[in-house]
Design brief:
about 130 residues, alpha+beta, Ybab, Chain: A, 2 domains, 3-stranded antiparallel sheet, 3 strands, DNA binding, YbaB/EbfC
Length: about 130
């Protein structure tokens, strides 16, 4: 296949556009934070776009009534929720950049596409058995 100058210019423009989109998405991902607060508003956790804990707040005195096990469980719950929220936000930023049928988090085919691909392979191998 041969490309003329116009084709190459168009490809370069598309490449520059894609690069710009990736840079914007990377900057937006770096800015992602998520905060989760417990129902009783005693515990609050803020994480960054990578899920790293940036701040943990414990307000009031009610937490003093909790056992060590319950205190730990409540902290883990609020941090885990903040991490899930951050992961959802970063996934939505990546979703528009990934090729159709690709899981943006892994770069691999989505589960449905993977099933379709495996079914195709099975059919292909079953076809080979018939040829023998």
């Amino acid at each position: 296949m041969r490309f003329d100058e116009t084709d190459i210019e168009q490809m370069m423009a598309e490449l520059r556009g894609s690069h710009g989109e990736l840079e914007r998405a990377a900057a937006e991902m770096e800015a992602v934070t998520a905060t989760s607060t417990s129902k009783d508003r005693v515990f609050s956790a803020t994480v960054d776009g990578h899920g790293r804990l940036g701040e943990l707040r414990i307000t009031g005195q009610a937490w003093r009534e909790l056992s060590a096990k319950e205190l730990g469980a409540r902290i883990v719950a609020v941090v885990t929720q903040a991490q899930a929220d951050a992961a959802e936000r970063t996934a939505s930023l990546l979703a528009g950049l990934a090729p159709a049928g690709t899981d943006p988090a892994t770069g691999l085919p989505s589960e449905l596409d993977m099933e379709s691909m495996l079914r195709g392979l099975v059919e292909q191998f079953e076809g080979h058995d018939d040829e023998r």
